[in-house]
TrEMBL record:
<feature type="transmembrane region" description="Helical">
    <location>
        <begin position="37"/>
        <end position="59"/>
    </location>
</feature>
<dbReference type="Pfam" id="PF07690">
    <property type="entry name" value="MFS_1"/>
</dbReference>
<feature type="domain" description="Major facilitator superfamily (MFS) profile">
    <location>
        <begin position="1"/>
        <end position="383"/>
    </location>
</feature>
<feature type="transmembrane region" description="Helical">
    <location>
        <begin position="206"/>
        <end position="222"/>
    </location>
</feature>
<dbReference type="GO" id="GO:0022857">
    <property type="term" value="F:transmembrane transporter activity"/>
</dbReference>
<feature type="region of interest" description="Disordered">
    <location>
        <begin position="383"/>
        <end position="405"/>
    </location>
</feature>
<protein>
    <recommendedName>
        <fullName>Major facilitator superfamily (MFS) profile domain-containing protein</fullName>
    </recommendedName>
</protein>
<dbReference type="InterPro" id="IPR011701">
    <property type="entry name" value="MFS"/>
</dbReference>
<keyword id="KW-0813">Transport</keyword>
<dbReference type="GO" id="GO:0005886">
    <property type="term" value="C:plasma membrane"/>
</dbReference>
<keyword id="KW-0472">Membrane</keyword>
<keyword id="KW-1003">Cell membrane</keyword>
<dbReference type="InterPro" id="IPR036259">
    <property type="entry name" value="MFS_trans_sf"/>
</dbReference>
<keyword id="KW-1133">Transmembrane helix</keyword>
<feature type="transmembrane region" description="Helical">
    <location>
        <begin position="242"/>
        <end position="261"/>
    </location>
</feature>
<dbReference type="InterPro" id="IPR020846">
    <property type="entry name" value="MFS_dom"/>
</dbReference>
<keyword id="KW-0812">Transmembrane</keyword>
């Protein structure tokens, strides 16, 4: 079951129409103005943010199988409509749905892992899913670039083919009443409302704190997509140099992730969170003294190691703290705050850099990251905290009433 999910994750990431290639497709096939394309790409991002939350509640309520099938059906419909219209209003709706479909399926993976695997295997499983996603992300730009040169419509054909393939894989995933799922109640955590399921992670003290700290790290990490290329250009580095340096991130993840995760298993979850936050903080802070491609690459290596440690542990943490039937909503909440970090972090980073300079921006990233590390460390030392306990009682967040972590 898990390896089917692994294959589906890789296929989906290979064929997804990411913003960069979406904008190229719109420019080539629709004749829409450049400013309008920017708005449409923004709508794709808004859809991806919303899709995480909706996908979490959907996976808990109808099961991973139907959640993935629904997401791929939406992706298919959006792709077909995209080649059949040039009306801006229709394109706006289609692009929004396409962005939503890009994240709608992701929380279903957390539900599959929580149901099908023992707790001891969660970190490794999430690490492998993260690995599969990065393999697809590494291959996708090269494949998409070639297809775009042949004919932009081949991009849509790739998206359709991978959506159909993932949908076929999804037919083997568990339904709403799989092992260890909601017992006979057909809904998340005993049938609570979808709105309550969406809000539950943010109402649980330990999980809400973790989500806030994750958001702070996202503000730092996602500078790689906004201010980092500008900073490198200001030091005289060409755009293709930025591309080569940033591509090292995916390469390192593909090569190192299985080994780093295995080596880190002997460390406790709290220690890994502290170490991951420290590496992200120091890695981005080091950009203040970087000036060459090699120095930027060295800084990137540091924060990539932090990323490798953080992502699987974060997913495992949320599964461990989710109430029965709530793993999807908790995972969706994490992906929501991470995507929100890009939406808010990009303009915030741009503003700081423009007003106070790049050195101030990277110093701010270091300070914020060290603050997150300190908060992680203090949280780990809280009296009565247990690695294996869940969050607040059912009276406040809809969990199953176990001891607070």
């Amino acid at each position: 079951m898990f390896w089917l999910l692994f294959a589906g994750t890789l296929l989906n990431r290979l064929g997804i129409l990411v913003p960069a290639f979406l904008s190229l497709f719109l420019a080539a096939e629709t004749g829409v103005a450049t400013g309008t394309i920017g708005v449409l790409v923004g709508l794709w991002g808004a859809g991806s943010v919303a899709g995480s939350l909706v996908g979490g509640a959907l996976a808990d309520r109808v099961g991973p199988r139907r959640a993935v099938l629904f997401s791929q059906a939406v992706s298919l419909a959006a792709s077909v409509t995209l080649v059949c219209t040039q009306r801006v209003t229709v394109l706006a709706c289609v692009v929004l749905l396409s962005g939503c479909a890009s994240t709608l399926h992701k929380p279903a993976g957390a539900v599959v892992v929580s149901r099908e695997l023992p707790e001891a295997g969660h970190v490794r499983a999430f690490g492998l899913l993260y690995w599969a996603s990065n393999i697809g992300a590494a291959v996708s730009p090269a494949v998409s670039g070639v297809l775009l040169e042949w004919d932009p419509l081949w991009l849509i054909a790739l998206n359709i083919a991978t959506a159909v393939a993932y949908g076929a894989v999804a037919t083997r995933l568990p339904g709403p009443s799989g092992p260890s799922g909601p017992s006979g109640k057909g809904g998340p955590a005993g049938g609570r409302s979808p709105a309550r399921g969406l809000l539950a992670p943010f109402r649980s003290g330990p999980v809400a704190r973790f989500l806030f700290l994750s958001f702070c790290l996202a503000l730092i990490y996602l500078q790689k997509q906004s201010t980092l290329p500008l900073d490198m250009a200001a030091h005289g580095l060409a755009p293709h140099t930025y591309g080569l340096v940033v591509s090292l991130n995916g390469l390192l993840i593909i090569v190192l992730q299985p080994f780093v995760s295995r080596s880190a298993e002997r460390l406790g979850m709290d220690t890994q969170f502290v170490l991951a936050g420290l590496l992200v903080a120091v890695g981005f802070g080091a950009n203040a003294v970087a000036g060459s491609a090699w120095s930027y690459a060295l800084a990137l290596t540091v924060w990539t190691l932090g990323e490798i440690l953080l992502v699987p542990q974060a997913s495992a943490f949320l599964v461990r703290h989710a109430p029965e039937g709530g793993a999807g909503s908790y995972q969706g909440a994490y992906q929501f705050v991470w995507n929100l970090g890009l939406v808010l972090g990009a303009p915030l980073g741009m503003t700081v850099r423009e007003r106070y300079g790049g050195d101030t921006l990277w110093a701010g990233c270091l300070v914020l990251g060290l603050g997150v590390v300190t908060a992680y460390a203090l949280s780990a030392r809280r009296p009565g905290r247990s690695r294996h306990s869940a969050p607040d009682s059912a009276g406040t967040d809809g969990s199953d009433g176990r001891e607070e972590s």
